[in-house]
Design brief:
With about 325 residues, the protein is an all-beta fold. The chain is built from no helices and 26 strands.
Length: about 325
């Protein structure tokens, strides 16, 4: 037999049941399903790993690879779909704040092609998610975070904390293992952090968070937290495009430089095609079930906007069809 299968939906929220349909040819007589990782999900509806068309409830945020082995008297064949099921929350990342803004703040962030100098932001949070750079899996980089106190660039208070996170699995949280840099400001401190992009990071756009805050436990939190309200400091968010391994700036898809923003969004989503190096022919918006809700034929690689104000809140896919490849980005509609 030749094994094959399809799921009724591949981008879901926790607690969703996914129905798998066997599409194998050659008249198989038995089926063996395998899902990796082995936790975070369960068979349901009376089905098991040996059912022809099982139902699986996914409970934990993450990416799941699915394998079907179809067997008959002539032998067996396996079909593997890597990171086929993506489970994500739809709440979006937290927006931290401070109660006393514009004391110490982030004056500059430099990483790869990002070099962003800014003034202090009222409220202590700034979204620069339209500012992005591409980082390759397995490659090493250095990020420089320059603080300031008023007009004194490069200055920070003793016991200020600076940290950087990249949401490598795109679950809209910043976990401890996703923190790529940290420093407690003291004598001899450095504002540069070296890190390596994990090879198991998802491919596509994810969020990077940069934060400075005062570390006194009564003033805003020690150790530094990516979400907590602080008394002093600032937080900035950026977009990182994770691309295939092979070195910085090298990718196996000319569409990897497409930028989709803002994310999450409420009324409008922008698709910036200007950096793509292959021609895009169509952009399609799919809901969580895979149903097409909007589409647009593209005649040139420019900046395109979708009005999504009338759509229900939830997870959507933006599918960008190029002349040689297809790119999918996930967005959250608030």
């Amino acid at each position: 037999p030749v094994a094959n299968f399809v799921a009724d939906q591949t981008n879901v929220t926790p607690g969703t049941t996914v129905s798998f349909t066997d599409q194998s040819t050659g008249v198989p007589t038995s089926w063996a399903w395998s899902i990796s990782p082995a936790t975070g999900w369960a068979y349901t509806g009376g089905t098991t790993a040996s059912s022809q068309n099982p139902q699986v409830t996914f409970n934990t945020v993450g990416q799941y690879s699915v394998t079907l082995t179809a067997t008959n008297a002539q032998g067996s064949d396996a079909e593997v779909k890597t990171n086929y099921i993506i489970v994500a929350q739809v709440t979006g990342p937290c927006n931290p704040s401070v109660t006393s803004a514009c004391d110490e703040f982030i004056q500059n962030v430099t990483l790869n092609t990002i070099n962003n100098s800014t003034a202090c932001t009222t409220g202590g949070y700034a979204s620069y998610t339209t500012t992005n750079t591409s980082l390759a899996k397995g490659s090493s980089y250095t990020i420089t975070v320059t603080p300031a106190i008023g007009t004194n660039i490069g200055q920070a208070y003793t016991d200020d904390e600076i940290a950087v996170w990249i949401d490598y699995n795109n679950d809209f949280t910043f976990s401890a293992v996703e923190r790529i840099g940290y420093v407690l400001v003291a004598a001899g401190w450095s504002n540069q952090f070296n890190f390596t992009v994990p090879t198991n990071a998802i491919t596509g756009a994810v969020r990077m968070r940069v934060r400075i805050s005062f570390s006194d436990a009564t003033q805003g939190g020690a150790p530094i937290d990516p979400c907590a309200i602080a008394t002093y400091g600032e937080t900035e968010d950026y977009t990182i495009n994770i691309i295939a391994s092979g070195g910085a700036g090298v990718d196996d898809s000319a569409l990897s430089y497409v930028n989709v923003y803002p994310n999450p969004t409420e009324n409008e989503v922008t698709v910036d095609l200007t950096a793509a190096t292959e021609n895009v022919s169509k952009i399609t918006l799919l809901d969580v079930t895979g149903k097409e809700v909007k589409s647009l034929v593209v005649t040139e690689n420019s900046i395109t906007k979708f009005d999504i104000s009338n759509l229900a809140s939830g997870l959507y896919q933006v599918v960008i069809a190029g002349s040689e490849s297809t790119l999918t980005r996930r967005i959250i509609k608030k």
